[in-house]
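Troubleshooting entry. The earlier prediction with calcium ion gave an output that would not parse, so I re-checked the input for stray whitespace and re-submitted. Clean input:
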Amino acid sequence: MDYAYWPNTRSCFKIILVPQDFSDATKACQNLGSKVTLASLNDPYEAAYANSLMLTAAVDLEDGLIDKEEPLWIGMVDDEVAGEYRWLDGWPVFYTKWDTSEPSKGADEGCVVMGFNGRWNDIKCSNKYGSLCKYSLSEWKYLFFSLKSIA
Ligand SMILES: [Ca+2]
C-alpha cells in the first residue's frame, strides 16, 4: 500500500499489515521516515478517513497478514501520566472516538487501537496488530504550542 493523502490535515497515512506489539509498531512507522509515527487522529473526518483506509486494506488482503476483524495500532499511549492518554506525535488530544465502555484503563492496558468499527480501545501493548502510520505536513501543532507558551 502506498501512502494515502488526507488534505484536510495535510497528512499521509500508510498501513503496515505485519502484526507487531506496540513498541515494534512504533519503530516500524519510524523506519519509514524520521517524521513518521503511529497516527494521531485529530478530528472526526480524519478518523473516518483512516478507518476507510483500514477497511480497504483488509479487502485488498483477502488471504493476507491481518485478520479482517483485527484492529490497528494508532499513536495513542498512556505512558507519562497514569490514566492520561497522549498522542505520540505531540498533538494535543483534541478528539477521541472511544468504543462503548472505553477506555477501560485496565491494569495492563496502556496502548490504543482503532477497531474495524472505527472506535478505539485501550489494550495490552504486548498484543500484536498491524500499524496505522502517519506523516503530517501540518504546521498547526507548532502554532498551537507557540500560543500555549505565550499564554
Ligand atoms: Ca480497553
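This one parsed fine. The mean pLDDT is 87.
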